[in-house]
């Protein structure tokens, strides 16, 4: 189940901990190189770099790759990357790269491969790089890049230096068409310039989610894989790169096939993890040749551990009473997610469902056993099955557990005529690979799965998470807002599975994609322990009028977690939340008056009033917020897996959704969190055997009246972690009282202060009041 086995040559590449750095023109390789000594002293073993291949000029994230064969010049080029690797090696560090196999920038000006396709059409050697349905566009590729209808910008189009130019955009011309009159020239191209709004319904190329500026890449084609991975594989072979993070594998036609080819190409020399979002108890496919995921599954379990289930339910009741019908109708998670799925599949993904309908129609027309299914029936069946996929997508095997008979029965209920509902069976069988194995059959199965993952991401992460907001800390990738809490037993079972099956998997608390950093979420999660106090806080600030109560709840809770009034940072995050929710305004259909009201509200309220110190009630929560921050950090750093620190999170780090969380790395003052991080990473570095594949995980139960408030475990019986959970509820229950924890036999040193020692043994359990006398967490090492 893991690509690393004890004793293998690849075991040397298994990180003990990684540190994610966001590279950008403002923070290039040279800046990262200057930070190496400080990061090495922190105790990590590898630097995890955001995408390093050539991207759109000025890109602050690098996911809009333009040339996978070159290291990005704006970051310092290949020489700069190799210099960074050399400096890192000199300080005992390796490099992990963020690899983007699924998509490239759909910019003809910067993407040479796409430019050649637009110039030469389907006969171009680069045409196989992209999923383009030429037949759907009258033999042309739709380019939805115009700011208005063609008739409105036609007079601004001109030919210069052999290319078609419009407001800084450049489009190649089909050979021999340069001197044609403009209308004839436009009709003669292999592409059709169109208003950007047509992408929703008319697009005929596969894109990344709903972003038409990113075009999908067909890495399932061996020649395309070779061409797009040559540079990265060279860097691996040269020892510059030790690990790979695979971005969005669910967007690929065959994730397992891709990962198998990648493992073969790297010769098993790379620690490889995938950005796979697991839903609920969904397992990572055991056949994938990777070390595990990037860690969103671990994030959900750690966050859930510090969420009170009873209070979370009460908070949901308070939210529904407060927000009323201003939020999503009904105010319950499952219904909200289903409505969001219908919205996205019928609106934002209309082009994708249309492409699937065309594919299904061609397959049915060519098969006598499948004929006479109307296009509308196939389209309805596709839509109804897609919204019932309970996870991101199905894979080579196990699809019947994703597209279940129950899902099919639910899909059929959308048909008024039972005879028409048989289209559901046809579509389900096509998606499961039952009807044939021809090229179009394989294409349908792949595109259905790819569309399923896009639907899940857009409807859950980018819509429903902003419509249903009782406890914002639960609204994170891979999370379950309907059941945000995780019991200690569930957490221990999860860790035992990781230790057994995926000991080299990644774990995270904050990433470049988290909507709120771990420290912000910790502040919000404390509210699950005091829902009525939160209601009282909202009453205190009720004098600041908001555009609607749902927005008020979301903005004030965001501000509470953030901790400091800052309209310059809170304002954009709140505005993004209302656009993503799509209840009153959106990215593509903005309501200027509503958005202006949102901005004015944030400036007058959440961006001005220091909510966490506005009253004695709120101020009293600060120690409990700190207990959440330190507890989550220590658990993540010592649980099974390879922990990743996002840049700057070794100390207090409060950040909101991107782009707020993608500011360049900047060293800051150390705090008590930094001391904890250094201590934990120091143990991982000096005793890697305790945390690697051989470092077994053992849960330690406390005994006494408040035992559920302690979570404790050992690694290889030599390192012990103990943390306080739900400390506000603990205080309300009278504190630790006689609750105790029996340590394993031996003498145990408090690593966080380097002085205190404790004796193990069942006969002399340690009182938790003593163990947690100085801080709400404890990290012990057997002496």
Q: In a few lines, what is going on in this structure?
A:
The protein is built from 27 helices and 27 strands. By secondary structure, the protein is of the alpha/beta class. The N terminus is likely disordered.
Describe the 3D structure.
Helices cover 40% and strands 14% of the residues. With 783 residues, the chain is an alpha/beta fold. Strands 16-15-14-5-2-1-18-17 form an eight-stranded parallel beta sheet. It has a six-stranded antiparallel beta sheet with strand order 19-21-22-27-24-25, covered by helices on one side. Helix 9 (296-305) runs antiparallel to helix 17, helix 18 crosses helix 24 (622-638) and helix 24 runs parallel beside helix 25 (672-686). The chain starts with 17 loop residues before the first strand and ends with a strand. Residues 1-12 have low confidence and may be disordered.
């Amino acid at each position: 189940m893991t690509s690393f086995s004890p004793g293998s040559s690849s075991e040397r590449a298994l990180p003990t901990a990684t540190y994610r750095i966001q590279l950008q023109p403002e923070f290039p390789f040279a800046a990262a190189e200057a930070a190496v000594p400080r990061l090495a002293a922190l105790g990590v073993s590898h630097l995890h770099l955001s995408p390093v291949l050539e991207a759109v000029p000025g890109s602050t994230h690098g996911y809009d790759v333009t040339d996978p064969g070159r290291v990005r010049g704006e970051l310092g080029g290949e020489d700069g990357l190799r210099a960074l690797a050399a400096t890192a090696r000199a300080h005992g560090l390796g490099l992990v790269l963020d690899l983007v196999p699924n998509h490239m920038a759909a910019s003809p000006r910067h993407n040479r491969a796409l430019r050649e396709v637009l110039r030469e059409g389907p006969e171009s050697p680069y045409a196989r790089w992209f999923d383009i349905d030429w037949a759907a566009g009258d033999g042309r590729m739709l380019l939805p890049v115009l700011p208005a209808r063609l008739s409105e910008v036609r007079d601004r189009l001109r030919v210069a230096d052999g290319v078609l130019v419009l407001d800084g955009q450049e489009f190649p011309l089909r050979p021999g068409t340069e001197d044609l009159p403009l209308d004839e020239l436009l009709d003669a191209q292999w592409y059709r310039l169109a208003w950007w709004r047509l992408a929703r319904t008319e697009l005929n190329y596969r894109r990344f989610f709903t972003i038409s500026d990113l075009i999908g890449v067909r890495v399932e084609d061996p020649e395309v894989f070779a061409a797009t991975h040559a540079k990265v594989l060279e860097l691996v072979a040269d020892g510059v790169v030790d690990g790979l993070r695979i971005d969005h594998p669910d967007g690929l036609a065959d994730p397992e096939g891709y990962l198998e080819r990648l493992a073969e190409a790297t010769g098993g020399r790379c620690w490889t993890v995938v950005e796979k979002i697991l839903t609920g108890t969904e397992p990572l496919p055991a056949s994938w040749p990777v070390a595990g995921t990037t860690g969103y599954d671990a994030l959900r379990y750690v966050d859930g551990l510090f969420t009170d289930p009873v209070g979370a339910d009460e908070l949901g009741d308070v939210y529904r009473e407060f927000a009323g019908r201003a939020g999503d109708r009904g105010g319950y998670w499952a219904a909200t997610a289903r409505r969001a799925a219908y919205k996205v599949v019928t609106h934002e993904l209309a082009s994708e469902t249309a492409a699937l309908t065309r594919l299904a129609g061609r397959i049915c027309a060519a098969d006598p056993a499948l004929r006479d299914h109307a296009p509308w029936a196939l389209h309805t069946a596709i839509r109804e099955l897609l919204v019932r996929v309970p996870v991101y997508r199905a894979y080579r095997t196990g699809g019947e557990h994703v597209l279940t008979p129950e899902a099919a029965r639910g899909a059929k209920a959308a048909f008024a005529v039972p005879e028409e509902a048989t289209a559901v069976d046809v579509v389900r069988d096509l998606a499961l690979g039952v009807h044939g194995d021809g090229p179009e059959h394989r294409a349908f199965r792949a595109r259905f799965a790819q569309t399923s993952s896009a639907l899940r991401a857009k409807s859950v992460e980018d819509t429903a998470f902003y419509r249903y907001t009782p406890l914002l800390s639960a609204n994170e990738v891979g999370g379950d807002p309907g059941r945000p809490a995780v019991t200690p037993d569930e957490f221990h079972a999860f860790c035992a599975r990781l230790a057994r099956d995926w000991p080299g998997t990644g774990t995270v608390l904050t990433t470049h994609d988290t909507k709120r950093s771990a420290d912000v979420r910790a502040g919000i999660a404390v509210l699950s322990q005091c829902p009525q106090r939160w209601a009282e806080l909202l009453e205190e600030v009720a004098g600041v009028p908001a555009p609607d109560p749902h927005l008020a709840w979301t903005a004030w809770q965001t501000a509470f977690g953030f901790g400091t009034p800052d309209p310059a940072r809170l304002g954009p995050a709140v505005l993004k939340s209302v656009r993503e929710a799509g209840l009153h305004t959106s990215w593509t259909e903005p309501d200027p008056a509503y958005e202006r009201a949102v901005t004015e509200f944030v400036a007058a309220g959440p961006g001005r009033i220091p909510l966490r110190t506005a009253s004695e009630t709120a101020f009293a929560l600060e120690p409990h917020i700190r207990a959440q921050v330190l507890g989550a950090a220590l658990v993540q750093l010592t649980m099974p897996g390879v922990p990743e620190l996002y840049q700057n999170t070794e100390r207090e780090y409060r950040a909101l959704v991107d782009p707020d969380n993608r500011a360049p790395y900047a060293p800051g003052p150390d705090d008590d969190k930094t001391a904890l991080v250094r201590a934990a990473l120091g143990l991982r570095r000096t005793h890697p055997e305790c945390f690697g594949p051989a470092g077994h995980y053992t849960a330690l139960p406390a005994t006494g009246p408040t035992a559920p408030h302690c979570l404790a475990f050992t690694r290889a019986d030599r390192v012990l972690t103990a943390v306080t959970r739900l400390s506000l509820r603990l205080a309300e229950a009278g504190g630790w009282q006689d609750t105790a924890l029996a340590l394993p036999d031996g003498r145990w040193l408090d690593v966080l202060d380097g002085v205190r020692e404790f004796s193990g043994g069942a006969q002399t359990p340690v009182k938790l009041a003593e163990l947690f006398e100085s801080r709400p967490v404890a990290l012990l090492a057997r002496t």
